[in-house]
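Fig. S4 source data, part A: sequence.
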Amino acid sequence: MNTLRDLQLYNIISDTPEYKAIEALYDMETAMILFDLICSEHKNIAFQSVAMQLGLRLSKAAVEAFEYGAMVLEGCKDLGLYELKQSEKSIWVRPILQFDEDDHFLLDPMNFEDHEKPEPVVDNTGLILSTSSQHEKPLNLDFINKINAVEFELDMDVLLNFQGKNMPITYNKVTADYLGKTIYFDWKYDSRGRSYSTGYGINIQGNKTVRSVIQLKNKEVIKDIEPLYIALANARGFDDWTWKRRIEWAKKQSIGYDMVVPKEVKYPERYVKTIRAILDYQENNPSGYLMELDATASGIQIMAAITGCTATAKEVNLIDPTKRKDVYRSLARKMSKMVDHKIDRDTVKYPAMTHYYNSLATPRDILEEDELEAFYSGLNGLLPGAEFAMKELNKYWSPLAKYHKWTLPDGHTAFVRTMTQQEGKYEYNGTTVKYLYYVNKGNMTDFRSLVPNIIHSIDGYIARQMVLRAKFEMVHVHDCFLFHPNYYKEAQQLYREILAELVTDYNINHIIKSLSGKDTDHFVDPSLADKILKSSYAIS
């Protein structure tokens, strides 16, 4: 046991005869994991799922994880924690042991919160999220230590005003434990180098509602009303407007303690929070308000930068500083002209994003037949840099390799193992079920994963550089950056500089060299870097 949650769970179950019986038959860790997997559920669970999770959490690998988990489940089936039920085609784990509601809170792993200050990170140990992705290649530890040190606190105004509305189920518990206390988040990497604040419920990388209950511990007097006007318009849902139009709209809104949130506001919690920040500005009160600016189509922006494609850059706000463009809305409008009905932006956003990550299934699953035809017709020639990056990088998938590795400009290593899905069969009292597991071996068919992994690794690099280069406190939700409004111009400039550097210092030729060892001489227009530095809406 090495976490608060382990101790809480142990205190609940250690005196039960069921726990003692399983511990005697196996060990403490097996007993605790079984209780955790089974007693936090209120329904029958597929045998395959419990067996695989149990084996993996006990550090077994691939097929051995399932086989060991299945052995334990069979061995403990008569000890009172659960029973095995079966039909002709299925085997189920049915929980028997019941706890009261408070105990269920402690047993649910999605409810656990630990917001104490993390220890300094000195090596890779425990730093990568997936057990199958662990490696000893260089990682950027400076970023982790800097972002781990950012101090937050709960925002009582938002907690009181929006209690029960879109809040996580941990609302009451976390509020009771951490109100008035400093909160930290513990950040980890995935295999590509994207960073995540671990924990559940109250999390800085939660949705906009959840993020609204968090503010900076270190408060500053807000120096300028302009970023708050922009944030207010963004909360209303007008983040695709020009800066000027957003500011002019916000000036006309009712600002006061007795204001009523308009029904059409997209993010009411952020709207109220921003109104409060404006009042703090007017009264010269220090504020821990977190402003948010999002990259506009960040994956396509990265593809534009690494290929030096000005046509693509124009569609995603890396060129043309006087106009705020929305590539997904532009595509939807083009498609609408080709079919007999209107297609909205949100319908095409995910198909377009995944298209450049080699997905054929997502556009096909979301769009109707006539829309799908219009989709590909509308994309034809729209984003040539993204198309080129996708097709060129696909060539460097190594079908026999057990992993693909490349190094980002900060020395951070993206190390992605090739995990190939296998199917196994398990028989119990005449019932045979299939289960899936993964083995680390090359394959011919998984080439589609390489491009999204590369682009996501660069997305992770950009986030690291934003945090490390900022002379102020900043965190991120991937391509969304959060910081005190006093620094919104500095944040925009940082983003422009980092994107511009991709054109000259880490373009598609550098990526291919790092990935394969091969030299290529694809033309990447260096003038795009200067154009990016003059843009206005790369993040907005």
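Fig. S4 source data, part B ends here. The CA atoms of residues 209 and 269 lie 6 Å apart.
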